[in-house]
Write a structure and sequence with these properties.
Layout: H1 4-8, H2 19-29, H3 35-41, E1 47-48, E2 54-55, H4 58-67, H5 70-73, E3 77-82, E4 87-92, E5 98-102, E6 112-115, H6 118-124, H7 130-134
Antiparallel strand pairs: 1-2, 2-3, 3-4, 4-5, 5-6
Helix pairs in contact: 2-4
Protein backbone atom coordinates (compact mmCIF):
# COMPACT_ATOMS: atom_id res chain seq x y z
CA UNK A 1 0.00 0.00 0.00
CA UNK A 2 1.26 3.44 -0.87
CA UNK A 3 1.66 6.14 1.73
CA UNK A 4 3.75 9.29 1.90
CA UNK A 5 6.23 7.75 4.32
CA UNK A 6 7.16 4.83 2.07
CA UNK A 7 7.20 6.99 -1.07
CA UNK A 8 9.42 9.61 0.58
CA UNK A 9 12.06 6.93 1.12
CA UNK A 10 12.51 6.82 -2.68
CA UNK A 11 11.25 10.11 -4.15
CA UNK A 12 10.83 13.83 -3.63
CA UNK A 13 7.07 14.15 -3.50
CA UNK A 14 4.85 16.98 -4.63
CA UNK A 15 2.15 18.38 -2.36
CA UNK A 16 -1.09 16.37 -2.51
CA UNK A 17 -3.65 17.22 -5.18
CA UNK A 18 -6.52 19.28 -3.84
CA UNK A 19 -10.07 17.95 -3.90
CA UNK A 20 -10.82 20.66 -6.47
CA UNK A 21 -7.96 19.50 -8.72
CA UNK A 22 -9.18 15.89 -8.51
CA UNK A 23 -12.74 16.97 -9.33
CA UNK A 24 -11.41 19.03 -12.25
CA UNK A 25 -9.46 16.03 -13.58
CA UNK A 26 -12.57 13.86 -13.43
CA UNK A 27 -14.66 16.55 -15.11
CA UNK A 28 -12.04 16.87 -17.87
CA UNK A 29 -11.93 13.12 -18.36
CA UNK A 30 -15.71 12.77 -18.20
CA UNK A 31 -15.34 9.88 -15.79
CA UNK A 32 -13.89 9.07 -12.37
CA UNK A 33 -10.16 8.67 -11.96
CA UNK A 34 -8.89 5.15 -11.41
CA UNK A 35 -9.18 4.65 -7.62
CA UNK A 36 -5.50 3.71 -7.22
CA UNK A 37 -4.38 6.79 -9.13
CA UNK A 38 -6.74 9.08 -7.24
CA UNK A 39 -5.27 7.70 -4.00
CA UNK A 40 -1.76 8.35 -5.32
CA UNK A 41 -2.65 11.93 -6.30
CA UNK A 42 -3.90 12.51 -2.75
CA UNK A 43 -0.33 11.67 -1.64
CA UNK A 44 1.62 13.48 -4.38
CA UNK A 45 0.22 15.52 -7.26
CA UNK A 46 2.39 13.89 -9.91
CA UNK A 47 5.90 12.51 -9.66
CA UNK A 48 9.23 12.80 -11.45
CA UNK A 49 11.61 10.01 -10.51
CA UNK A 50 15.38 10.04 -10.64
CA UNK A 51 15.05 7.77 -13.67
CA UNK A 52 12.70 8.15 -16.59
CA UNK A 53 9.26 7.70 -14.99
CA UNK A 54 6.89 10.67 -15.00
CA UNK A 55 3.46 10.37 -13.37
CA UNK A 56 0.96 13.01 -14.40
CA UNK A 57 -0.48 15.58 -12.03
CA UNK A 58 -4.22 16.14 -11.70
CA UNK A 59 -4.15 19.24 -13.91
CA UNK A 60 -2.45 17.40 -16.81
CA UNK A 61 -4.14 14.01 -16.90
CA UNK A 62 -7.29 14.92 -18.87
CA UNK A 63 -5.35 16.84 -21.53
CA UNK A 64 -2.80 14.05 -21.98
CA UNK A 65 -5.55 11.45 -22.35
CA UNK A 66 -7.32 13.68 -24.92
CA UNK A 67 -4.10 14.37 -26.84
CA UNK A 68 -3.38 10.66 -27.23
CA UNK A 69 -7.05 9.73 -27.75
CA UNK A 70 -6.81 7.06 -25.08
CA UNK A 71 -10.60 6.71 -24.73
CA UNK A 72 -10.89 6.01 -28.47
CA UNK A 73 -7.99 3.59 -28.89
CA UNK A 74 -7.93 1.98 -25.44
CA UNK A 75 -11.41 2.29 -23.91
CA UNK A 76 -11.42 1.72 -20.18
CA UNK A 77 -7.76 2.71 -19.79
CA UNK A 78 -6.30 5.85 -18.27
CA UNK A 79 -2.86 7.16 -19.20
CA UNK A 80 -1.15 8.09 -15.94
CA UNK A 81 2.34 8.91 -17.19
CA UNK A 82 5.23 7.84 -19.38
CA UNK A 83 8.83 6.69 -19.40
CA UNK A 84 10.21 9.87 -21.02
CA UNK A 85 10.94 7.78 -24.10
CA UNK A 86 7.63 7.21 -25.88
CA UNK A 87 6.07 4.52 -23.69
CA UNK A 88 2.80 5.39 -21.94
CA UNK A 89 1.85 4.02 -18.55
CA UNK A 90 -1.81 3.15 -18.13
CA UNK A 91 -4.27 1.75 -15.64
CA UNK A 92 -7.40 -0.15 -16.65
CA UNK A 93 -10.73 0.46 -14.93
CA UNK A 94 -10.93 -1.39 -11.61
CA UNK A 95 -7.74 -3.41 -12.24
CA UNK A 96 -4.61 -2.86 -10.14
CA UNK A 97 -2.03 -3.70 -12.86
CA UNK A 98 0.01 -0.97 -14.57
CA UNK A 99 0.41 -1.38 -18.34
CA UNK A 100 2.87 0.06 -20.84
CA UNK A 101 2.30 0.72 -24.53
CA UNK A 102 4.14 2.64 -27.24
CA UNK A 103 2.45 6.05 -27.57
CA UNK A 104 2.61 5.73 -31.35
CA UNK A 105 0.63 2.47 -31.37
CA UNK A 106 -1.97 2.63 -28.55
CA UNK A 107 -3.56 -0.76 -29.32
CA UNK A 108 -4.73 -3.32 -26.77
CA UNK A 109 -2.71 -6.04 -28.52
CA UNK A 110 0.46 -4.03 -27.82
CA UNK A 111 -0.13 -3.55 -24.06
CA UNK A 112 2.40 -5.13 -21.71
CA UNK A 113 2.05 -5.50 -17.96
CA UNK A 114 4.65 -3.30 -16.29
CA UNK A 115 3.73 -4.08 -12.69
CA UNK A 116 1.01 -5.84 -10.73
CA UNK A 117 0.14 -2.52 -9.08
CA UNK A 118 1.18 1.10 -8.85
CA UNK A 119 2.69 0.31 -5.45
CA UNK A 120 4.83 -2.45 -6.96
CA UNK A 121 6.04 -0.13 -9.73
CA UNK A 122 6.94 2.67 -7.34
CA UNK A 123 8.31 0.70 -4.37
CA UNK A 124 9.57 -2.72 -5.47
CA UNK A 125 10.69 -1.63 -8.94
CA UNK A 126 11.73 1.84 -7.66
CA UNK A 127 9.90 3.55 -10.52
CA UNK A 128 11.82 1.66 -13.22
CA UNK A 129 9.70 0.88 -16.26
CA UNK A 130 10.00 -2.31 -18.31
CA UNK A 131 12.65 -0.81 -20.58
CA UNK A 132 14.80 0.19 -17.62
CA UNK A 133 14.38 -3.16 -15.87
CA UNK A 134 15.18 -5.17 -19.00
CA UNK A 135 18.21 -3.10 -20.03
Amino acid sequence: MLNRANLEQHYRLEPPASPEALAGAEAGLGRPLHPDYAAFLRLSDGLYTGGNLVLLDADSIAERNRDYEVAEYLPGYLMIGDDSGGMALLLRDQEPAVFEVDMGVMMASELRVSADSLAQLLIRFQGRTLGERQA
